[in-house]
Automatic annotation (TrEMBL):
GO terms for molecular function: catalytic activity; iron-sulfur cluster binding; metal ion binding. This is Elp3/MiaA/NifB-like radical SAM core domain-containing protein. Its cofactor is [4Fe-4S] cluster. InterPro entries: BchE-like (IPR051198), Elp3/MiaA/NifB-like_rSAM (IPR006638), rSAM (IPR007197), rSAM_sf (IPR058240). The keyword S-adenosyl-L-methionine applies. Residues 174-379 form the Elp3/MiaA/NifB-like radical SAM core domain. The keyword Membrane does not apply. It comes from the Bacteria.
Length: 450
């Protein structure tokens, strides 16, 4: 069986920071990089005939030709919401030019298939694959059989896809990533992880082999640990840091600010951790289950900085329980930490809220997916939309001034698109009210509404 795994173009938001790029210039983002690694590795367990095609590098037509020339029996597209415009285009082109079976999965499908299915329609025959509960769940649909012995803890990732997919000059700029666990203990309303995943941990010796391969075969001088929350289990984190200490390889990671204790920071520094993403934190919203005090944030940033570790925070404006004035104050605070040299703006994510997870309170705008994460895509009414647009303007004026010119181009494109619509609102059925204790079931094994 011949299989092509496709990573569609990400639109204007490249992942961790909305750089308004038209191409990914710093390699795959944390989430995507590991999605491709595990899709490729699992597929190789069933067939030797597997390739990955990344539409974020090179020309679209050349990438499409590579997909079609491989004469695939199955094409798997792993899509985020941001990349869903590209997904629909590729799906239509594959359907028109190939007899391959088409499968679409990834975060876009995992979060929307059961509660907002209309959002995923691509206009051609395809099968949607939800892998919320188990990263191996898709193989039964594609290959017709499933090796039940495969387990995340002991499964060995195959990173040969990197050299097969990208030329040397591209690989030199890639951010090599690994994951050592899947899942998260926090419950932010717009995040899928805590609702569905049981937390699974990789055997540290599997990680050791993975790192040795990346260093020896691909020349990786450092890696990023892409776990949603690195310190979920302290014993596991300690074992992972022991592996990095043994190999002497610099690394970075993602965690939550409250876990950056003096003890953990000291150990991170000893094992050559260079930076840490502290996820999405907030000072005043109830939508995020990670409350942080300003004094605590600044204390941890300074402590980490004294050890040579950069803290990279993430902020969201336009959350559903925050008023406009509070959002403005937060953006002004972000500007102040840049001015005081606590954190550089290249180390900050500051986005407008996008409804990646279906929420009954959201009213979606009728705009292409490429604008998600960059421009307002939901609002209660036109006045609310104008306030959210003003927040976007403020973010690029105060936080990312070097990107202001590009932002103005994207903003104009966004407004022109809306002006050409009969109405700015997307006609969609409202998301049903689902109690939190039922969401686990509905988002993983629920029934698509007729």
């Amino acid at each position: 069986m011949r299989v092509v795994i496709v990573f569609p173009h990400v639109g204007y938001c490249t992942g961790w920071r909305p750089h308004l790029a038209t191409a990914v210039k710093n390699g795959s983002t944390y989430h995507i990089a590991q999605a491709l690694t595990y899709l490729y590795s699992i597929a190789r367990h069933y067939t030797d005939d597997v390739i990955v095609v990344d539409f974020n590098f090179g020309e679209h037509d050349d990438n499409l030709a590579r997909v079609l020339d491989y004469r695939p029996d199955a094409v798997l597209i792993s899509s985020t919401v941001n990349s869903y415009d590209s997904t629909k285009q590729i799906a239509a082109e594959v359907d028109a030019n190939s007899g391959a079976r088409l499968f679409i999965g990834g975060p876009a499908v995992s979060s929307n298939h059961f509660l907002r299915p209309e959002l995923l329609e691509v206009g051609v025959p395809c099968e949607f694959v939800v892998t919320n509960k188990n990263i191996f769940d898709w193989v039964g649909k594609v290959f017709g059989n499933e090796d039940k012995s495969l387990q995340f803890r002991t499964f060995v990732p195959d990173n040969r896809w990197l050299s097969e997919t990208y030329p040397a000059e591209v690989r030199e700029k890639l951010r090599y990533t690994v994951i050592t666990s899947i899942g998260c203990t926090y419950k932010c309303h717009f995040c899928l992880n805590p609702m569905v995943y049981k937390i699974n941990y990789k055997d540290p010796e599997i990680l050791r082999g993975e790192l040795e391969f990346l260093a020896a075969e691909l020349g990786a001088g450092s890696v990023s640990v892409a776990d949603p929350f690195f310190f979920m289990r302290q014993a596991h984190s300690n074992e992972i840091m022991d592996v990095f200490a043994d190999l002497g390889m610099p690394w970075s990671q993602q965690t939550c600010l409250v876990t950056l204790t003096d003890e953990n920071l000291d150990r991170m520094a000893e094992t050559r951790c260079t930076s840490v993403l502290v996820g999405i934190e907030n000072f005043s919203s109830g939508e995020i289950n990670k409350p942080v005090e300003v004094s605590q944030f600044e204390d941890r940033v300074l402590r980490a900085k004294s050890l040579g570790i950069a803290v990279k925070p993430s902020f969201i404006s336009g959350l559903l329980d925050i008023d406009y004035e509070t959002d403005v104050a937060q953006i002004e605070y972000i500007e102040s930490i840049i001015a005081r040299d606590l954190v550089g703006n290249h180390q900050i994510q500051s986005n407008i809220y996008s409804p990646y997870i279906p929420d009954a309170r959201d009213r979606l705008l009728d705009v292409p997916f490429r604008f998600w994460g960059v421009m307002p895509v939901t609002a209660a009414d036109e006045d609310h939309w104008r306030r959210n647009l003003a927040l976007c303007d403020l973010i690029y004026d105060r936080v990312f001034p070097e990107t202001r010119e590009r932002y103005q181009e994207v903003r104009a494109e966004y407004l022109d698109y809306l002006a050409g619509r009969e109405t700015m609102w997307l006609k969609h059925r409202p998301v049903p009210q689902v109690p939190l204790d039922k969401r686990v079931f509905v988002l993983t094994s629920g029934t698509v509404r007729a």
